[in-house]
Amino acid sequence: MFFRRYIGDRAFYRKLFAVLVPILIQNVITNFVNLLDNIMVGQVGTEPMSGVAIVNQLVFVFNLCIFGGLAGAGIFTAQFFGKGDDEGVRQSFRAKLYIALGAFALFSLLFLTKGERLIRLFLHEGKEKLDLEATLAFALSYMQVMIPQMLPFALCQVYAGTLRETGETLLPMKAGITAVFVNLVFNYLLIFGKLGFPALGVVGAAVATVIARLVECFIVIRWTHLHRARCRFIVGAYASPRVSGELARRMLRLGTPLLLNEVLWASGMTTLNQCYSVRGLEVISALNISTTVTNLFLCAFFATGNAISILIGQLLGAGELERAVDEDRKLIAFALALSLLVGGLMACVAPLIPEIYNTTPVVKALACDLLLISAAAMPMNAYTNSCYFTLRSGGKTIITFIFDSAFLWCLSVPVAFVLSHYTGMPILPLYIAVYALDLIKCVIGFVLVRRRRWVNNIVSFEQG
Length: 464
Hints:
Elements: H1 2-6, H2 10-44, H3 46-83, H4 86-120, H5 132-146, H6 150-165, H7 170-192, H8 202-226, H9 245-277, H10 281-317, H11 321-349, H12 361-376, H13 378-393, H14 397-422, H15 427-436, H16 438-451
Helix pairs in contact: 2-3, 2-7, 2-10, 3-4, 3-5, 3-6, 3-9, 3-10, 4-5, 4-6, 5-8, 6-8, 7-8, 9-10, 9-14, 10-11, 10-12, 10-13, 11-12, 11-13, 13-14, 13-16, 14-15, 14-16
């Protein structure tokens, strides 16, 4: 009975891996190359690495805004596809374009006008007496070049997300792999000045990112328009700007909480790092190393979460509600089993990777400790991530908002702020105390999924 409830048959895992593996490969390669990029920037020195890390925290908020803004429309895309409604998919694609362009305009204006003020929030002197003004200069030069890459990134996510939600997972993976290798090559050439290229340091890292984003965007858009028979949503997608009123209202009602959730969650995580930075700039450097490595291992749960969103969303859209409940339970069990393997591997490499960086022994030791804490928390991350995507697949976006960002801002951020600003607690106990709060989130997620309010078909209407 246990095996039937929590472990699927061969057909179940074939379907799961068909969706999960391409997403996982793309994200593993992307994050592995990000790690190599991070190591290359880290060879320039601690201040340049810290400046890049601060800007990437800010760009991270934009990236999550794109993911959150597109996620609401993506719920409809997956369910329309499950229903066989091409016009519904087409209109949700148009809505994604409007969201992406609006987010790019807003964040570009914010970074151009308030960039320096945002960066200074992270600059605090610590025991290592690092140069804060030099860090600021590196960060500003990096940010100026990074702003243009946000547009091709946003457009690529519109196309790639729609392709995945309609069953085309391989092309976004191939484009992503190509882009990360382009990024890696140009990072090497432009950071260090190899093969006759100028040595641009952190600016070279930013230029390489811009080139890679343009390449990825070009590949995804070109392939979609050349394969119109397989990508039926693109036929007539630009013939009209129209999104039906009923669909727009439903997207607004379901998508706004998701957009707010991602923006608030990303800004909340950035605020947590700002709280940690009060302990000194070396903490930012250690967090940069730890976060980059942790993101590589978290790819497994990001891919599993996307698989839950797509597979369960398609079942709900097709009206197979009980099957959706059964397969969701098995997907969560799979994620938890995977977390034990991933956490063990991460604990093994934790002492090794910080030694590659050209930074101080204090930063290396702190990065290792942070990695071990993250490795121990892998099962907790896997479970909360699976609960989040389960709730999202059924359109329960207000509940996901409360579960995710409201929890972060109402509990985690206040605790981190109080402990960092009003106590002398060292960074490691502070980090553990904030991380441990997610145990409460696990209990909340269990209750929400068990109640089955997420089991909904949200596309049973005429969009006109």
